[in-house]
Amino acid sequence: MKNLIILILTASFSCCISRTHSAKKQADVLPQKETEVTSIESNILKPKNYWFASYDTLKQMDCLTRPKSFENTEMNPELLIDILNQRQAMSKIQFLKKHKDTVFIKIENGAYLSQQMGTTGAWNWLAETTFTLTELKGIENVNMEFEEGDHARPGNYTRERFKYILLNIGK
């Protein structure tokens, strides 16, 4: 009888240790720092400092929203390109030159833009870039140099090219 009691206690104790060890393993998988979750949330909720494309579920179409930060900001091509390069897309912009009413840029990793973002993703990225850079006084065109693919072509882009997109100016 004494052996049976020892056996039951040992089994119960082993079970408790196993559960504690299992709970610890699960805790190791979860984010260790609250900042990991917070940084993701703040990036999603952070106001954009460039024309931002999103899908309007009520109107069932893509829209571009003009950032309020453009109201009283002195802008130049390099500043706007730095802002655009903070987007999470893998394609980055390199400023080449400004001539008359055109800004010339090169898209690094253009294959990602033209082949991997899909048609809508590439089109929205091009629209955001074009609208942001044409905020500059006297700039009407953005000449984009990148590797051509199924979803995007290099060349001259204007706001007119994206006229189908609903604009949310000042909202």
Explain how this protein is built.
The protein has 171 residues and is an alpha/beta fold. The chain is 42% helix and 21% strand. The strands form 2 sheets. Strands 3-4-5-6 form a 4-stranded mixed sheet. It has a 3-stranded mixed sheet with strand order 1-2-7. α4 (110-116) packs across α5 (118-133). The protein starts with a helix and ends with a strand. 21% of the residues are buried.
Q: What is the radius of gyration? A: 26 Å
Helix content: 40-55%
Intertermini distance: 79 Å
Structure classification: alpha/beta
Task: Tell me the β content.
Answer: 15-25%
Q: What is the overall shape?
A: globular
Topology of this protein?
Elements: H1 2-29, H2 34-45, E1 52-56, E2 61-65, H3 77-84, E3 92-99, E4 102-108, H4 110-116, H5 118-133, E5 141-145, E6 155-157, E7 166-168
Parallel strand pairs: 2-7, 4-5
Antiparallel strand pairs: 1-2, 3-4, 5-6
Question: What's this model, at a glance?
Answer:
It is built from 5 helices and 7 strands. It is an alpha/beta fold and 171 residues long.
Task: List its traits.
171 residues; alpha/beta; 4-stranded mixed sheet; 5 helices; 7 strands
